[in-house]
Each structure stands twice: as C-alpha cells, then as structure tokens.
C-alpha cells in the first residue's frame, strides 16, 4: 500500500474513532439531562458499522440511569459483542436500581470477572446492609486493590464496627488518602478524637476531604473552638468545609459566631442555608430563619421542611400552614418530614380539613402504611375531635405497637370517654402489649376526666407491682387531679406530700384547680405560693386566687395580690381560639374581634345569641372575670371570650348538620361552658370545643363531660353562680322577678332550700340538664348540711320526684 493509501486509511480510522466518541458522549450527555428518548435516537441513528461496544455500554447505562432496568437488560441481550466493562455495567446498574439479586445472578454467570466486578458487588451488599455477605465475598476475592480494601473499610465503619475496621485497616497493604480519611471519620464518629488526630498528623499528604473530616469531627463532638483553629489553617477550603464549621456553631447554639461565618462564606450552599434556618429556629429567632429562607435563590426539600419545622416547634402554626400552601402552589414535592410537621400543626390547630388533605397525600405516597405515621394520624384526628376516623386508622393495622395503642387510650381520655379508654387499655393488655409510662398517663387521665376514682386508684397502685412501670411525676399529677376533681382535696394534698420527687407546676396546678372548685381558700394560698415560686411569670395562679378572695369579700387581699402581680411583671396569657372554615384557620382573641375582616356580622350574631340565651334563662357568671369591675363590664367581658367569638363565626359559616369545631389555648371557664351548652340547645348545633385540658362535645344542651369539670360541691358564696341559678328558676318556673330582686335579703339557708327546689326541677337527668315537662309536682326530701366558712355555705342534697 502506498503512502497515499496508508494516509487515507489512517484518516478513516481516526474519523471513525472520533465518530464513536462523539456518539458515546452525546448519549451520556442526554442521559445526564434525563433525556432518555434523545439518547436512544442518537444510538439508533448511528450506523451499525460505527456502533461500537462503547456506544452499547453507554446506552445500557443510560437506561439504568433513567430507572428502566428491563430496557437496559433487553438492550444488553442484543449486544453483538460484550466485554468485562459491559458485564460490570450491568452489575452496577442493577445495584443502583435496588435489584441486588439480579446483580448477583449476573455476577455468577459472567464469563470473566475482574477486581471491579468483585468490588462492585461487595459495595452493593454493603449499601443493602448485608455486611456479612459483603465480608464473605471480600475475602473470596482473588485479587484486591486499594479501592476494594477502602470499600470494605467504609462498610465496617458505617456499621460502627470500629474494632473490625481497625484490624482491616492495619492489614491493608497500601493505605491511600481515602482510606486514611475514612478511618479518621470513623474515629471521630465514635468520639475518639485523639486517635483521629494522631492519624491525621501522621499523614504525609492530606487533601481537602481529610482536613474537612478532622474539622467536622471536632465540631460534631462539641470542640468547636479547636475545630475553628484547624479550619483557619486549612490550605484550601470547599463548600463542605465551610458547612462543617458552620454546623459546629449551629449545633452548639452559638448563633452569633454562626451568623458571622455565614456572612463571609464565599458560596452559601443550600445545605448551609438549611443549617442556618434550623439554628435560628432552635434559638428562637424565627424572623431571622424566615429571612434566610426568603433570600435563598434555590431551595431543596430540606429547606421547606426546615422552615415548616421551625414554625411548628415555635408555635407559629398559622405560618406553617401558609408555607405548606405555598409549597403546593409552587409545585414543590411534599416530602415525609414536611408532611409529618404539617400533621402536627393540624393537630395543634384542630384543623381537620388540612389534616385530611395531608392524610390523602400520605396515602398517595404510601407513607400511611408506616406504624409511626399511623400513630401521628390517630393523634391528629383525636385532637381535631374526629374519633371515628382515628378509630378507622387504628383498625386498619392488624399488628399495632405500643405507640398506636397509647394514641387511642389518650384519645378517648381527652374526650372524656373513660369507659372506652379503659376498654382499649384492657384490650391492649390482652394482646400481650406491655403498657408503658405514656399508657398510664392516658388511662389515669381518663379516670380523672370521667370521675372513676376507684379504678384510678387501683391502676395507680398496680403500676409498679403488676406492670413494672415506675410512677413518674406525670402520674402523680393525674392522681392529684383525680382526687381533687372528686372533692377529696385533703387526700390530694397528702399524696403531694408523699411524692418521692419534688412536685412540679403541673401537680400544684391540678391541686390549685381543685381548691378553686371546692373553695379551699387556705390551702389555695399555700399552693398558689408554690406555683409562684416555680413559674413567677405565670398569671394564672394569681388571677384564680384573686377571684377566690373576691368571692369571700376580702378586697384588701385582692388589692395586695394585684400589687404583687404588678411588681413581679407577671404576664397574663391571652385567651385565643381557632376555628377552621373552608380550609382557612381563623383566630380570635378574647375581648377583640376587630382584627377580623367580618367583625360586623360576628358582632350581630353575638347580639342575637345574647337574646336567645337570656330567653333561655342564661345569666352571666361574674365569678369567672376580675372582681374589681362593675357588673356591666363583667357581662361584656364574658360575652367576648374568644371561644364565643369563634362559635359565633362558626354559626355563620359552618353549614347546618356539620359540627362546629373550636380549639382554645386555655381552659374554658365555667360561664362559657354553661353558655355553650345553651347555645348548642337554642341553635340545634353540635359544638366540639377542645380546651387546654380536654374535649367538650356540646349537643342539645348537654356536654360530654357531664359538667364534671365544674360541679361537685356547689359553692354558695358571693358570686354570680347563685344569681344564675335563680335566673334559671325565674325563666323555667315563671316566678316573679321579685324573687331575684330580693336576693340580697335572703339568708344562706333560704338560698340552700331554694337551690334544692330548683335542682328538683332541673335534675331530670343525672347530669343536671333540664327535663321539660308540662306539669311538675315536686316533693323534695332535702338533707341540708351547711358549714359556714367565711360567709360561704356548701349544700349537699338528694332529691326525689313524685
């Protein structure tokens, strides 16, 4: 062949190689951009003579990258020739798509294996968590290179098998930078910083990953200042280095240094921004967290999850829901952490519509099959007042863990269904599920809310001896509440004195509530002082004690207490209520409806309700507001409690036949409780109110709590309670208004007798709700035992209707 012929052949071969390289690069480029159809078009348009093995391998890899393993295998089977790279590509592709069994079958049938084949399969088993099979395969390898050793080392460290990793590391014939860096990371993970630093100092050559591993190790183990010194002398830094140092500050709560470092970062990565959002959130700087969020040019799923989590943790529930809605508008994929956080927000706000929406998304994502998610869903439905759906979620799982059982026990407890809560508890035990401390908090609370004193005492006594659960402070708080509600205030105090640990604010708060209900003023003074020491900024104990003083006419004590409140800068938490209407949550604050855009019609509805309630015999009970204001101001204050504003709005907006669901941040007062019972009756609506303690289901003039929260011994002190009862008597018995007008000249015994007469009339059912009859003949057998305590008489009675 002449010179011209040889030159032509050489040019032809060069063009063919270039064509093949161009084809392979084009397929790989389309694959990286997710354009699998374009990649296949390039492959198909390549003439067969130029379709070399590299193009086939690239197209098979593209199918695996697009998560189309069947198409990849089909194309592999059509390959005219295959090399070891082709077989290794098939193994790696199956592993990447989670098909380890297929990868093993390819490995077992391939004609020739090299070190890449063995190492790829070892890595696959390690990624799948099967370290035993990975080790077995590793030691069977005929030849190992530094990559093989490093892969196995990384797998052992990932499983926290540091001792085995050390042995393997010492056996390595060659230790490259990657292997040593892995070992440094392993030492740091176990908190062995001295060993890690010794290895770091021995290295003849370090790269940026090695430096970053050491900085990160110090930072994660709380030695942030040492990490910063090492960070400052790094020869070069990358995004990961900066972020590792930043995380050291944020995780230590040192947000000032974190902010300074963040401001000088050359590149603010998404991961770094997410860390700042979380750090600011935990530090309570919610505004700063939101500022970082809004300044980000790019956000990932973790960014949205972090911001929603911050809102959820810090009580910004409405903002969390708003951000969740924005996620959906912007087409951001909803991930698991975001959905769980939003479910918690829905539970906090009793936002049932949003909760159902999140539940539907969890179902579409198949997340709802998880037991943990099921427990969160049950809790959400319970707190939204929908026990039926909570029970449906519970029933879908044949095998339930203790968390799910606890969710149902607690749910029935919060709704005052003590019998149902106890039944779930006994079912749980019959299935062999061991109750834990949370279980007993739920079941003891159920006994407390439903007045099951005997059952509660028996369960409390059996906790340690029968169920091996040591009673904690929460269980003692439940028992104090149980005894206090039942009127056994002295027994409750004795239990507090015998507690093996120091009582906390919850225990003292339960006892103070019992003192208020049963007018134990002397004990209330002691308990209120204990609470003031534990929570000096909490206004609740002061207000309650002030009202008790006022009910006894001890105005000097009231004034002294007010001065003390002012001197201590005590803050009274405002009453707030929420109601969800048409997938939007509306918030109302006690005494103020002006912030709502529909304030005029709300006020009109309140006025209408006031007239209906007066016709039904309602008279505001001024004992539940401050006593140093006149009666007109008391009436106005009671009428504008936040739950009444929310209910008025619900009556306007919630369709007939649908329950009105309201959530309040504080305990509902006795006056509102009485008023809402009548509202439910005169409007014919069902009202579900969740306050700080429990649920109240109001319907036809009744409450599910059977007034257990407010009755027991009825105090006849100088309060509006007796006037309200007299007003009801006037309305129901059509007595002359002169009876009410003569209230100031009646003596205590006459009030007691009159109350017994009224009770005979209204006690048509066991919970004291009116029984309406056309004619009533009452013969009352009364046993009146009166003990005068500073001008207050307690009346115990029995009545019989003939």
UniProtKB/TrEMBL annotation:
Family matches, as Pfam families: DYW_deaminase, E_motif, PPR, PPR_1, PPR_2
GO MF annotation list: RNA binding; zinc ion binding
Keyword Disulfide bond: no
SUPFAM superfamilies: TPR-like
InterPro entries documented for this protein: DYW_dom, E_motif, PPR_At4g14850-like_plant, PPR_rpt, TPR-like_helical_dom_sf
Spans of repeat PPR: 52-82, 83-113, 114-148, 176-206, 207-241, 269-299, 300-334, 401-435
Ranges for domain DYW: 617-708
Keywords assigned by UniProt, alphabetized: Repeat
One GO term (biological process): system development
Bilayer-crossing regions: none
NCBIfam families hit by this protein: PPR
PANTHER family in the record: PENTATRICOPEPTIDE REPEAT-CONTAINING PROTEIN, TETRATRICOPEPTIDE-LIKE HELICAL DOMAIN SUPERFAMILY, DYW DOMAIN-CONTAINING PROTEIN
Family of this protein: Belongs to the PPR family. PCMP-H subfamily.
This protein's name: DYW domain-containing protein
The species this protein was found in: Clitoria ternatea
């Amino acid at each position: 062949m002449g010179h011209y012929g040889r030159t032509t052949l050489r040019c032809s071969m060069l063009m063919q190689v270039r064509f093949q390289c161009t084809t392979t690069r084009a397929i790989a480029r389309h694959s990286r951009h997710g354009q699998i159809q374009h990649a296949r078009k390039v492959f198909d348009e390549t003439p067969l003579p130029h379709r070399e093995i590299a193009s086939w391998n690239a197209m098979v890899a593209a199918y695996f990258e697009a998560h189309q393993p069947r198409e990849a295998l089909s194309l592999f089977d059509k390959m005219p020739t295959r090399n070891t790279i082709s077989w290794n590509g098939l193994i790696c592709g199956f592993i990447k798509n989670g098909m380890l069994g297929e990868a093993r079958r390819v490995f077992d049938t391939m004609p020739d294996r090299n070190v890449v084949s063995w190492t790829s399969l070892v890595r696959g088993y390690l990624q799948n968590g099967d370290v035993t099979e990975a080790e077995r395969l590793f030691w069977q390898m005929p030849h190992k290179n530094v990559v093989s050793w490093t892969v196995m080392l990384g797998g052992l460290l990932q499983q926290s098998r540091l001792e085995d990793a050390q042995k393997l590391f010492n056996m390595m014939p060659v230790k490259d930078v990657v292997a040593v860096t892995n070992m440094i990371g392993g030492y740091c993970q176990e908190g062995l910083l001295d060993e890690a630093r010794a290895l770091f100092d021995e290295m003849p050559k370090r790269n940026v990953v090695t430096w970053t591993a050491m900085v990160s190790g110090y930072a994660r183990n709380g030695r942030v200042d040492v990490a910063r010194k090492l960070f400052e002398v790094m020869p070069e830094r990358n995004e990961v280095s900066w972020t590792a140092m930043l995380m050291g500050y944020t995780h230590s709560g040192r947000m000032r240094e974190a902010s300074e470092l963040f401001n000088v970062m050359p590149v603010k990565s998404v991961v770094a921004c997410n860390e700042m959002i979380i750090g600011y959130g935990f530090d309570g700087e919610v505004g700063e967290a939101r500022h970082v969020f809004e300044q980000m040019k790019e956000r990932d799923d973790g960014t949205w999850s972090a911001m929603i989590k911050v809102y959820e943790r810090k009580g910004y529930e409405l903002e969390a829901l708003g951000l969740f809605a924005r996620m959906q508008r912007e087409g951001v994929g909803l991930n698991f952490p975001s959905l769980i956080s939003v479910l918690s927000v829905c539970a906090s706000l009793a936002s049932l519509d949003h909760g159902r929406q999140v539940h539907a998304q969890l179902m579409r994502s198949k997340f709802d099959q998880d037991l943990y998610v099921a427990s969160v869903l049950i809790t959400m439905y319970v707190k939204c007042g929908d026990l039926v759906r909570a029970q449906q979620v519970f029933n879908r799982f044949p095998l339930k863990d203790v968390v799910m059982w606890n969710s149902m026990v607690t749910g029935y407890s919060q709704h005052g269904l003590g019998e149902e809560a106890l039944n779930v508890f006994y079912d749980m035990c019959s299935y062999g599920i061991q109750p834990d401390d949370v279980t007993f908090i739920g079941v003891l609370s159920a006994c407390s809310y439903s007045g099951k004193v005997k059952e509660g005492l028996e369960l409390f006594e059996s906790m340690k001896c029968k169920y091996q659960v040591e009673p904690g402070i929460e269980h003692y708080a439940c028992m104090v509440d149980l005894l206090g509600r039942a009127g056994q205030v002295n027994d409750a105090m004795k239990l507090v004195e015998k507690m093996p640990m120091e009582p906390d604010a919850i225990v003292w708060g339960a006892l103070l509530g019992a003192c208020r209900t049963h007018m134990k003023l002397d004990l209330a003074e002691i308990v209120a002082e204990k609470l003031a020491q534990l929570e000096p900024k909490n206004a609740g104990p002061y207000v309650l004690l002030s009202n008790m003083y006022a009910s006894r006419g001890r105005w000097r004590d009231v004034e002294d207490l007010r001065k003390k409140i002012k001197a201590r800068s005590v803050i009274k938490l405002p009453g707030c209520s929420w109601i969800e209407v048409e997938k939007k949550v509306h918030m109302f604050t006690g005494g103020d409806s002006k912030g709502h855009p529909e304030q005029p019609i709300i006020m009109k509805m309140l006025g209408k309700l006031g007239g209906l309630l007066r016709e039904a015999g309602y008279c505001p009970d001024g004992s539940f507001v401050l006593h140093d204001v006149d009666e007109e101001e008391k009436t106005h204050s009671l009428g504008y409690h936040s739950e009444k504003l929310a209910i008025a709005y619900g009556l306007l907006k919630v369709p007939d036949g649908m329950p009105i669901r309201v959530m309040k941040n504080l305990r509902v007062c006795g006056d509102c409780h009485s008023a809402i019972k009548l509202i439910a009756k005169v409007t014919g609506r069902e009202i579900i109110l969740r306050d700080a303690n429990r649920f109240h289901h109001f319907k036809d003039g009744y409450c599910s709590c059977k007034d257990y929260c407010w009755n027991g011994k009825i105090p006849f002190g100088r309060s509006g309670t007796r006037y309200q009862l007299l007003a009801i008597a006037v309305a129901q018995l059509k007595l002359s208004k002169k009876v009410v007008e003569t209230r100031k000249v009646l003596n205590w015994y006459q009030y007691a007798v009159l109350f017994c007469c009224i009770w005979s009339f209204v006690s048509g059912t066991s919970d004291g709700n009116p029984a309406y009859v056309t004619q009533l003949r009452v013969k009352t057998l009364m046993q009146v035992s009166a003990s005068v305590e500073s001008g207050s008489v307690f009346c115990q009675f029995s009545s019989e209707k003939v």
